[in-house]
Design brief:
Structural class: mainly alpha
Strand content: under 5%
Shape: rod-shaped
Number of helices: 1
Radius of gyration: 18 Å
Distance between the termini: 62 Å
């Protein structure tokens, strides 16, 4: 029982870490796109 719970907790942490990195990547892409859009609009 304890081992299963430990594995679940580790999986949850890995998923949270993955999602955090994923959203950070999306943020970076959005910012880059905004910069290029702003520079082409001028």
């Amino acid at each position: 029982m304890g081992l299963i719970n430990k594995n679940l907790a580790e999986n949850k942490n890995a998923n949270v870490l993955f999602l955090t990195q994923y959203f950070a990547l999306i943020d970076n892409i959005m910012i880059k796109n905004q910069k290029t859009m702003n520079s082409t609009a001028i």
